[in-house]
Please model this.
Amino acid sequence: MNTNKKTHVVIVGGGFGGVRSALLLSNHPDLFDVTIISKLPYLIYYPTLFHTAIGQRSTMTSIKLSEIFKNKKAKIIDGEVISFDRQSQTVFLTDNSSFHYDKLILAMGEVTNYFNIEGLDKFSYSVKSEKEVLTYNHHLHDFLVQNEQPDKNYFVVGAGPTGIELASRLPGYIHYLMKVHGIHRKAVHVELVEAKEHLLPNFDRKFSRQISRRLSKLGVSIKLNSTVSALNDSQLIINGQGYDSKTVVWTAGVSTNPFYQNNNFAMTKRGKVSVDVYLQAEDNVFVLGDNANTPYSGLAQTALNDGSFVAKNLIRMKKGKYLKPYQPKIPFSVIPVGKRWAATIYKNITIFGFLSSILRQLGDLDGYLKLLPLSSALKFWLKGFKGEPKHCHRCQIKQ
Ligand SMILES: Cc1cc2nc3c(=O)[nH]c(=O)nc-3n(C[C@H](O)[C@H](O)[C@H](O)COP(=O)(O)OP(=O)(O)OC[C@H]3O[C@@H](n4cnc5c(N)ncnc54)[C@H](O)[C@@H]3O)c2cc1C
Model:
């Protein structure tokens, strides 16, 4: 590589991995021209997305890319990349524009996968985007207000961290809505459905047992070894039996962005992109975060680490230094279960309760700090401490 000429790095994806790498590279305007292309003009801070599902403000979840890159030398392009040409080193967008790159970084996240289960795409709710979460929240509210009683069952399918966090807050939220709207208090049936034989199939059993206990205390029933085979407008079919519900949320399946298969990348059996020790999928093309086949992909922390790793190696490369190989970082997993209670696991250390919920808040602050300067990071983080609204967020009725 000619180290005197600036390297044009094109980054596709304005999420955790893409933004982190763009931020570090844009600190070196003498070495790099940075272009970040993203389908959305903002980064979705997924760890706080579920707040919107239970009627809280969405303002801590969407961080405008223009705010993140306010004083940075990076070009932001609002657009969708559909293909690229390896030979001419060019990416192509749906609006027919194209960008030449010297180095390409891809961090395009995951998409919801319904595994072809009948009716799920039509009748279930999803929590993968702000729009979807709002639609779900409006349904929770409108069903209750129109029928003056809760749905027969509220199903959350998938007992991973997202499903657990969401299910744990539903009984409290539905009771809150009943109270605000003067609806006579009735039992609320929240069911967490998991195909495997224990919650959090990727974690230690003792850890998931503690979480099960906490969920039961909060009024969440757990259905293990339960496979969903279909959903229609009034019933969810689990292990061949129909259960009445108009409120099914699907958190059980995601898959890698189809861009990679459509563009003939080498994929692993896990459905992730094969990468080498530099997170390089092919010459001059790096893949990060949820898309890369690394041991802990699927987490924001991993995507942030990957973004830093690739950016720092590119800086080293420009400075003629040796490249470091990728070292996966064991994640610090904190799963909130209801208000002011969480479960933490790091290596073989586990912590349950209030202290864990503080760790979670500190983890969020750390996440914001990796994306924003101190004052903006604090501004977003502190939004999470605002109390419950005193009126219904949807129809403005006062409590
Ligand atoms: C509801 C939910 C809760 C979560 N909670 C946690 C948590 O508490 N802790 C944790 O560590 N992780 C959590 N995660 C996982 C975490 O959010 C992901 O691991 C992380 O977002 C991955 O970062 P990424 O950069 O790989 O992809 P993403 O952050 O998903 O970013 C992908 C980006 O690519 C853009 N894009 C996609 N396709 C195109 C295209 N064709 N052209 C241009 N741009 C494109 C998207 O608009 C997006 O900006 C959660 C995920 C979800 C869905």
About this structure: The radius of gyration is 22 Å. The mean pLDDT is 93. The first strand starts at residue 7 and ends at 12. The CA atoms of residues 277 and 372 lie 28 Å apart.
